[in-house]
Amino acid sequence: MLVRILLACLVGFGLASTSSAATIFQDTFGSGSTLNPSTYPTPTATSTGYTILSTKAATTGPSLTAGSLRISMNSGTTSGVVETQALTPDATLANAGDVLKYTVTFVNTGDLLAGGTSSYVYAGIYNSGSSAPVVLNNSGLNTTAGSPFATGGAFGWQGYVGRIAPTGGTAQIYTRPAQNGTDTSSQNQDVVGNNAGGGLYDSPAGTSINSTSSTLAALTTGDTYTYQMAVTLNGDASQTFESSLYAGASASGSPLWTQSGIATTPLATTYNAIAIGYRNSGTSLNPVMTVQSVSLDVSAVPEPASLSLLAVGGLAAGFVRRTRPARI
Predict the structure, then answer these.
(1) How many domains is the chain partitioned into structurally?
(2) SS3 content of the chain, % helix, strand, coil (to 5)
(3) How confident is the model over 69-89, as pLDDT tens digits?
(4) pLDDT digits (tens, 9 = 90+) for 220-256
(5) Same structural domain for residues 309 and 252?
(6) What is the reported pTM?
(7) Shared domain check, 265 and 175
């Protein structure tokens, strides 16, 4: 009788699932993070090193203080990209149902997405292969052949990018594959731009997993927004990506914009690098993005075998207590 009960519970609990959430990385820039470090630091749960890379001069615009990572170029441009890259601790999708959330809260300090329909906000997650990013903040992302930055750094990073666009533009989720070395310029260090212009990765270019015409209303100068990329590991080992933008300082309520797509053969299951940035294109502007916090969280589903063992152990203990003869 005991065997039958335990087998039944084994099946029942094996089909059930519960999840536990863990914060892998949470940075508000007040716990030791650095900007453009000369020696790249080991990332911790609350700090890392942020490097600036740009197709234009971005030597005086960016800054990092507690509660603020400021991303901008030195002056206005009709076409330019600036991004920051960083390593993080490992965030791994291990079991079907696991969800990774990459969240960025920022202030539109000025002119984000205002240049035209080819202006974008970017956010990406990657497997870095433990290769730290480099600093290329003075028009360092370019197409000049024979660059010493053609390899190393983020050359081999592979992952996914969410691209937010204004109304009339094209919002996308696409891959950032490891670069293959056929191009010998520093554009191999870019991880967000996907061949949108000179100095942006294209050897090879990324593949879109969702492309949608945007209906996002203009961002308000001075307002706070939260971007979130949620990645779910599916039972067939594919991954579902959801790219969303929210008003306010959290990823809650109805998003201002959201889209999703499925990577049938994912480039990674462990993510340990991030990027944030923007492109201005059209009207000459120098947008400013002030990031207030970034985080990586994983909601993990235990393996069915672990759940079953826990269930059987608890039931067996309860059965023993119930059947133990009463003491006289």
Answers:
(1) 2
(2) 10, 40, 45
(3) 999 999 999 999 999 999 999
(4) 999 999 999 999 999 999 999 999 999 999 999 999 9
(5) no
(6) 0.88
(7) yes
